[in-house]
Amino acid sequence: MKKLFLLASVTFLLASCGSNDRGELVGVSGKSWHPEKPYGMSLVPGGSFIMGKSDDDVANVLNAPTKTVTVRSFYMDETEITNSEYRQFVHWVKDSIVRTRLAILAEELGEVPGNGGIGEYAFKDADTTNLSEYEKYMLFNYGGGMGEESYRGRRLNKEADLVWDNRDYPDQYYAEVMDSMYIPEDETYNGRRTIDVTKLKYAYNWMDIQAAARAKGQGNRKDFIRKEETLVYPDTTVWIKDFAYSYNEPMHNDYFWSEAYSEYPVVGVSWHQAKAFCAWRSKYKNDFNKSKGKQPVNQFRLPTEAEWEYAARGGIESGTYPWGGPYILNDRGCFMANFKPLRGDYAADQALYTVEAKSYDPNDYNLYNMAGNVSEWTNSSYDPNSYEYVSTMNPNTYDGENKRRVIRGGSWKDVAYFLQVSTRDYEYQDSARSYIGFRTVQDYMGTDVTQ
C-alpha cells in the first residue's frame, strides 16, 4: 500500500512539473461551456419592476402593496404544462415501476437474460462480466439484498420492450407482475380493466438549502436531505368536486387521456405533484446529457411569485394585464384571454372550459396564457404580509410549515380581476383543482442579458 501511495505521489509531482503555467496563478482549465436554450422555453431577461398593485385594489384585500424588486434572468415555459407533456411523466413512472418489479421477480427466481421469459427483464448488472470495476464495486456495496429499497441503484434493462397486450405475455411470471399493476377484477366495469393509479408513485430526494443555511454549520448534511414520494396521476374527479350540482362527467372521463385534449393544460395536479414533475424533468434531461457526455443542466423548478409576476408583465411597466391593458378586449372586440366575462357567460370568449395551451397572443416575452386559462402554482408560500419583509433582490417567501401556496394568473372560471398580473391568490399545497395547472422555469447561467 505504501509503494502504491509513493508511486501516486511521484506521478502527481511529475504532472505538476510538466504544466505550462510557469508557476503563475492561471486557474483550473475545464471543459468549455456551451449554453443551451431549453426546449419549449423563452428567456426572461432579468431586471427591476414594481411588484404589486399600482392601481386600485378593488377587492380590498390589501395584500399586495407596491414594492420595487429585482429578479435575475431565467427561462420559463412558453405555455402551461400540457396533458401530453404530463402524460410523458406518468408513462415514464409507470414503465419504471413495471420494469423494477419484473427485474426484482427475475432476481428472486434466478432468471437472467438469454433464458427467455421474465429473465429478459432482469437487472442489467445481473451479468457482471461486462461491468466496469466501479459498477462492480457499487453493486457489491450498495446493490443486492431483498426488498425494493435494497434494489435502488441497480440498472434496469430498458432495451427489452414491455408487453402490454395480455395475449402476448412471455410467461406466467410476467403475467403475475402485470396483474399486480391493474385494478382488481371486482372493481372493473364496462369490461375495462385499467391501471391502478395508486401504484404510480415517484420518489425523489432534494436538499433543503434554506434549512442548511439557517443551521449555521450545525448538523450533518443528511439532516437536510428531504425524501419525497408522490402519487403522479392527476385527480380527474376535480371536475366533479369543484362544481356541485353540475354535469361535468365528460371532462372527468376524457380530459387527461383523450388525444383531443393533448395540447390543453394539465389540471388536477397538486403543488406536490408539480414539484415532483420538476424533479423528474431535471432527472430525465440530465440522464440524457450524462449518456452523451454533456454537462448537466440546472434544475427545472416552479417559479417564485416575483418571477411569475415579472414574466407575466412582459416588460410592460405598471401594466394591468400581460398585454398592458386596462381593457380585456382587442380592437376587433375579441376577448384577449380565457376567463369568465359578462357576469358569468363562460362561453363568451369562445371557450367553456380550458383552451389549448398555445392560444391567444403571447406577451412580449413570448409567454402564452399568463392571464386566464388555468391559474398556476408558484414555489412561494402565501403570506398576506410578505411584501412588507421580503428581500428586494429575488424575493421569495418559502416556509415549509405554511401549507398555502401562491397561485397566479386567474383561470377559465375566474372574473377579470384575477387575471391582473398583480393579483395574488392561494391554494393549499395538497389540493388539486380543475382550474389550476403550472409551468416550470430554469435558472439562466450568467448575467449578460440582465438589463
Please tell me about this protein's structure.
- This protein has 451 residues and is an alpha+beta fold.
- Helices cover 24% and strands 12% of the residues.
- The chain has helices at residues 2-17, 83-109, 133-142, 172-179, 209-214, 238-241, 249-254, 271-291, 305-313; strands at residues 41-44, 47-51, 67-71, 74-77, 201-207, 225-231, 300-301, 375-381, 404-408, 425-428, 436-437, 441-443.
- The chain is globular.
- The termini are far apart.
Secondary structure: elements and pairs:
Elements: H1 2-17, E1 41-44, E2 47-51, E3 67-71, E4 74-77, H2 83-109, H3 133-142, H4 172-179, E5 201-207, H5 209-214, E6 225-231, H6 238-241, H7 249-254, H8 271-291, E7 300-301, H9 305-313, E8 375-381, E9 404-408, E10 425-428, E11 436-437, E12 441-443
Parallel strand pairs: 8-11
Antiparallel strand pairs: 1-4, 2-3, 4-12, 5-6, 7-12, 8-9, 9-10
Helix pairs in contact: 2-4
